[in-house]
Amino acid sequence: MQTENSNAVHENRRRKTYDTGVIRAWFGIDQDPFSLENIVLLKQQQDVYDTLKVHCNQGGLCIVMGEPGTGKSVIKEALRQKADKRMVVVSVNRTMHTYSNTLKILCNAFSIDQNGQHVSCEKRLIEQAYALNREGKSIVTIIDEAHLLDIEVLRKLRLMFEEFPKNHNLILFGQTELLSRMSLKVNDDIKSRITFSAVMLKLVSDDIQEFIMAQLDKCGLGHNIFTEDAIALITRSSDGILRRIRNLALSSMLEAVRARTKSIGIEIINKVLIQPHWRNDFDMFTENKQMGVR
């Protein structure tokens, strides 16, 4: 379910088309580099994905946790992309809402009427779930940023999902604090129902190189686009965070277009790394500047 403001979506798409269009034209490729289309999973991601697929067929409550940027969204997108005709995947991306508004978001995701009180919404959702079940379909409900979801809202959702067909699978994606909250004694009714949980770890150097090579293969670029020194610098600077790796590699390709080169070495990577958001000392630098310290 797409939940962004329509103007923001339009602007993001416009920028993405411009940026990746320039890269495609310069490097002579047809597919966007480092995109989430036609996802190629790393081993850690594949292991979690395979286990989730089993639970998607038999039902349960699954939790996938990790620091921001460690690959949770990749698995979520893979579930959506690879779903067959027998599986209905519903995503809820807005979690800082009341229970009534969350129900309306779910109704919208299931393409059913969202008007009325929450009791009416619950009834329609349950009826729709059984209608899909009679068609031989399994239902997967994904809640993203679940650590931001009020625990009482999650409890009410859990009670409603108890009325869904038994093969319904609820998957919560969020940061590790989600499980910490569930570990409180008062939340045993939720934690005791977890059938699978996983923590996405930071990537090690071999994984990072494998990821970059796989992305280059996917869009038809040679492995020599990034020099060995450039990959080593990306590895050191990304701290094993998948999103940083992707952003740094993509920004470096844009810098290569500006520099009119098709070989990305450490000088290109460093042009990206001097930007303030990549510098760990930026806050200290700003504070010293404000205090007049040179």
Could you characterize what this model shows?
With 294 residues, the protein is an alpha/beta fold. It folds into 2 domains: 6-40 and 203-274, Helicase, Ruva Protein, domain 3 (Orthogonal Bundle); 43-200, Rossmann fold (3-Layer(aba) Sandwich). Helices cover 53% and strands 11% of the residues. The chain has 13 helices and 5 strands. A 5-stranded parallel sheet has the order 2-3-4-1-5, sandwiched between helices. Helix 2 (43-58) crosses helix 3 (72-81), helix 4 (99-109) runs parallel beside helix 5 and helix 11 packs across helix 12. The longest helix is centred in the first third of the chain and has 22 residues, at 6-27. Mean pLDDT is 88; it is low at 1-18.
Features:
294 residues; 11% strand
Secondary-structure blueprint of this entry?
Layout: H1 6-27, H2 43-58, E1 60-66, H3 72-81, E2 87-92, H4 99-109, H5 118-134, E3 138-143, H6 151-161, E4 169-174, H7 177-182, H8 188-191, E5 194-200, H9 205-218, H10 228-238, H11 242-258, H12 266-273, H13 282-290
Parallel strand pairs: 1-4, 1-5, 2-3, 3-4
Helix pairs in contact: 2-3, 4-5, 10-11, 10-12, 11-12
> For this structure, what is the CATH class of the largest domain?
Alpha Beta
Q: With helices defined by DSSP (H or I, 4 residues minimum), what is the helix count?
A: 13
Radius of gyration: 22 Å
Outline type: elongated
Which strand-content bin applies to the residues? Answer: 5-15%
Structural class: alpha/beta
Reading side by side through the largest sheet, how are the strands ordered?
A: 2-3-4-1-5
- Oligomerization status of the protein chains: single chain
Summarize the biggest pleated sheet.
Answer: 5 strands, parallel
CATH topology of the largest domain: Rossmann fold
CATH architecture identity of the largest domain: 3-Layer(aba) Sandwich
Mean of the pLDDT scores? 88
Distance between the termini: 50 Å
Please mark out the parts with pLDDT under 50 across 5 or more consecutive residues, or reply none.
Answer: 1-18
Helix content: 40-55%
CATH homologous superfamily placement of the largest domain: P-loop containing nucleotide triphosphate hydrolases
Please report the total strand number as a whole number.
5
Q: What is the N-to-C order of secondary-structure elements (H for helix, E for strand)?
A: HHEHEHHEHEHHEHHHHH
How many domain regions? 2
